[in-house]
Amino acid sequence: MPTKLVLGLQHGDEGKGRVVDDIAEYWADVVVRFQGGGNAGHTVYDREGNKYVTHILPVGIVIKQSNNHVSRRNMTNIISRGCVLNVIDLYEEINSFKQKEITPNDLQISGYCPLIEPTHILLDRLKYQGKLGTTARGIGPAYSDFYARDSILFKDLVCNPEEALYKIQEKFFNFQTEIAQSNVDGEVINENFDYFNNWTKNYREIVDCVSKFLMEDESIIIDLYNEGKNILLEGAQGCGLNIYSNNYPDVTSSAPTVGGALNSTGLNHNQIDEVIGVIKSYKTKVGTGIFPSRCDEENANILAKIGNEYGATTGRPRKCGWLDLDEVNQAIKMNGVDHLCLIKTDVFCNIENPFIYHNSELNEISKVNHVSLEDKSFVELLETIKTKTGINKVSFTTGPKRGEIVWSEM
Ligand code: IMP
Question: pTM of the full predicted structure?
Answer without folding.
Answer: 0.95
